[in-house]
Sequence to fold (300 residues):
Amino acid sequence: MSPSVDRPHRGTIFLEDAVVIGQESWPQGQFVLRLTAPKCARHAQPGSFAHIRCADDLPMRRPLSIQRVDAEAGWIEILYKTVGKGLSLLSQVEPGDVVSCLGPIGHGFTPSPERQRRLLIGGGVGIPPMIFLAEQLKDAPPDVPRPVVLMGSEIPFPFRTRPSTLLLPDLPADVIAAMPLLESWRVPSRLASKSNFPGCYSGYVTELASLWLASLDQQSLSEVEIFACGPTPMLQECARVAQRFGVRAQVSLEEFMACAVGGCAGCAVRVQTPDGPAMKRVCVDGPVFDADTVFPPTAA
Fold:
């Protein structure tokens, strides 16, 4: 059956028995899981997610953002933190185990061809879509500015940081910690935390974003688009920052989900539309929305 106009996600979500390729553990209960899921890998876009069954005796799946894919090799990669019984059980799977994977789900980020200065902001478990998007954008033509990736966390990052070799001269000189994977792609990144991690900006990642935006002239600001994923307070502040600097922003929302395919409407949020306020399902109508529709500008 082909997707209908009112249900465009029909026919684009696949159920697969995904084989565990590997799982890395990181401090504070963080894990990076790689699965063979060829259909999901072939159709996933930055911002989409997979609905994973964590154990055979736990029917409720968990929505997990996709961090990377290799469509040719047929694998997807997911970063998650062990919050609750389900994800704690998922952390125990080993290579060769099989988990049920439903995905990819949701509308992803849609970079505007008119705004080619991309600022990617990820907080905590909102980091994965930023890595996915950065990988998609890294091979842009030479005349397109490299995306800038800013990430924040109050627990150790799920990778080994290192001093960046890619200069961002308009940021404080001592803010030099970066993600090695992004460095290998020649994509500049910087990290923020209030936990005093070496080389990180001491404060919120949105404050670091404001510093970067404040360094740009009006012509450069007119070319900026922000992409963000993380906790709701962080996304709300990202929207405020975008509004203050007059730039466009897209945000990927984090919500509790039951079915994740639009049936239960348990993840619905209030969104401004041209016809007025409406309730939209984060799973299939999102998770990515224009920031102004979720966090409308407040009157001065």
Q: What stands out?
A: Confidence is low (pLDDT under 50) at residues 1-6. The helical segments are 38-43, 85-90, 127-137, 180-184, 205-214, 218-221, 232-245, 291-294. The chain is about 20% helix and 30% strand. Residues 232-245 form the longest helix (14 residues).
